[in-house]
Amino acid sequence: MSRIAYVNGRYLAHAEAGVHIEDRGYQFADGVYEVVAIHRGRFFDEEPHLDRLKRSLDALSIAPPMSRAALKHVLREVARRNGIRDGILYLQISRGVAKRDHAFPKNVAPSLVVTAKRTKPTPRKLVEEGIAVITIPDIRWKRCDIKSISLLPNILGKQQAKDAGAFEAWMLDEQGMVTEGTSTNAWIVNRQGAIVTRPAEEAILNGVTRLAVKRLAAAEGIAIEERPFSLAEAREAKEAFLTSTTSLVLPVVRIDSQPVADGKPGKLSLKLRALCEEAMAR
Ligand code: PMP
């Protein structure tokens, strides 16, 4: 089956789909995006993704290109036309196409692009053995709560991690506190056994998986402390893990080449992953 992309009202062959060279997404990274997981034909946590999309659009004063119901229809249609049962949907909205000028254009319709791709399950090895992270300075702007397509610091950080043989880079603010990963949220289980993650303010993206873990943990009576944690605390933690739509929950077993506790995935991390997998299968 050949891939199909939705671009501004049309379903096009993926290989030929494109936007105009003066699309503000292309020229200024003036846009936002979302990634939604599809599991056995069902969208996981679609509503929280669409809620966050709305918040990102509002923060940038970009009008929604269509109603929520219409967008949900397009998402389903892209998944269907691509025959995706297990995979991800990518959707991007930019301020639209206009003659290049920094200030907002008038009377311009936002651009909407939706693509879908099949994904393989996370290799069991990553879950069973855990993954490594490096740490880097957080050089991003002060509104990381907006899911902007402007991702230069994130891609530079991810490449640094890859070059170092690590899965992710955790970013540190000027106080040495962990903000988040380049495309994941960061968590630890500290010496006292508390699950700690940074509060969702403007320094991080409020991950939909982060919210799912909070919800599932609460239902099990597992407490979560939302406060910044330092690199020093992470190094001494009993467990560490990261969360995202594409990784779900992955145990972090090395930080800057040093093992976390005994260097094996922690019990709570694996328990939270299992809870997420169950929730997706429901
Ligand atoms: N932080 C950043 C910077 C991200 O890009 C992502 C992935 N979009 C996340 C966290 C995790 O968010 P989610 O659980 O919604 O995928």
List the helices and strands and how they pair.
Layout: E1 4-7, E2 10-13, H1 24-28, E3 31-39, E4 42-43, H2 46-59, H3 68-81, E5 87-94, E6 111-118, H4 124-129, E7 131-137, H5 152-163, E8 168-172, E9 178-181, E10 185-189, E11 195-197, H6 208-219, E12 224-226, H7 231-235, E13 239-244, E14 248-255, E15 258-259, H8 267-281
Parallel strand pairs: 7-8, 7-14, 11-12
Antiparallel strand pairs: 1-2, 1-6, 3-4, 3-5, 5-6, 8-9, 10-11, 10-13, 13-14, 14-15
Helix pairs in contact: 6-8
Bound molecules: 4'-deoxy-4'-aminopyridoxal-5'-phosphate.
4'-deoxy-4'-aminopyridoxal-5'-phosphate (PMP) is lined by residues 35, 154, 180, 183-185, 205, 207-210, 243-245.
Report on the structure:
- 37% of the residues are buried.
- The longest helix is centred in the last third of the chain and has 15 residues, at 267-281.
- 29% of the residues lie in helices and 28% in strands.
- By secondary structure, the chain is of the alpha+beta class.
- The strands form 2 sheets. Strands 7, 8, 9, 10, 11, 12, 13, 14 and 15 form a 9-stranded mixed sheet that branches. A 6-stranded antiparallel sheet has the order 2-1-6-5-3-4.
- The two termini are 28 Å apart.
- The chain is built from 8 helices and 15 strands.
- Strand 1 and strand 2 (10-13) form a beta hairpin.
- Bound molecules: 4'-deoxy-4'-aminopyridoxal-5'-phosphate (PMP).
- 4'-deoxy-4'-aminopyridoxal-5'-phosphate binds next to helix 6 and strand 13.
